[in-house]
Design goal:
The chain is built from 4 helices and 3 strands; from the N terminus they run βααββαα. The protein has 99 residues and is mainly α. The chain has a single domain, classed as Multidrug-efflux Transporter Regulator, Chain: A, Domain 2, CATH 1.10.1660.10.
């Protein structure tokens, strides 16, 4: 599914406390995944805000960590996914294709 900036799933409105409750991860774990560049919350005045897409990503990260996948490997996978999406977007724009 392609990202729609105006879709509710991508709006950064959820506090870290709520994300912690939704995912079962501690706030410390969530901040650690941010430090490892696996998640990118919006920050204003020291407050982190997450989207539902971020919540899904954190749950996926937690599942992979339970399976023993190191954070470096998760980061490599994320980087690969982002590159593929960017390339697809560039190709779609160049050829005026719809996603």
């Amino acid at each position: 599914m392609e990202r729609k900036d105006d879709g509710y799933k991508f709006k950064k409105v959820i506090s870290i406390g709520v994300v912690s409750e939704l995912t079962g991860l501690s706030q410390r774990q969530i901040r650690y995944y941010e430090e490892r560049k696996l998640i990118f919350p919006d920050r204003s005045k020291g407050t982190r805000k997450y989207s539902f897409d971020d919540v899904e990503r954190l749950m996926d990260i937690a599942d992979k960590r339970e399976e023993g996948v190191p954070t470096q490997e998760i980061r490599r996978e994320l980087t690969k996914e982002l590159r593929e999406k960017m390339l697809k977007g560039q190709m779609n724009a160049h050829f005026r294709l719809r996603g």
